[in-house]
């Protein structure tokens, strides 16, 4: 049987894969955070008063 030790040599060979995974995870987390932030702001503005119109329905910005 071969032993599977986590050594520097093993990590250095896997570095591109590890970096790609970390970058992909960071991108997914950033997109999710932004999506949740937009939804939270939409709910807060909708609950403020009766004059709120979403940008999607208003025809655009200034």
UniProtKB/TrEMBL annotation:
<keyword id="KW-1133">Transmembrane helix</keyword>
<keyword id="KW-0472">Membrane</keyword>
<feature type="transmembrane region" description="Helical">
    <location>
        <begin position="16"/>
        <end position="33"/>
    </location>
</feature>
<keyword id="KW-0812">Transmembrane</keyword>
<protein>
    <submittedName>
        <fullName>Uncharacterized protein</fullName>
    </submittedName>
</protein>
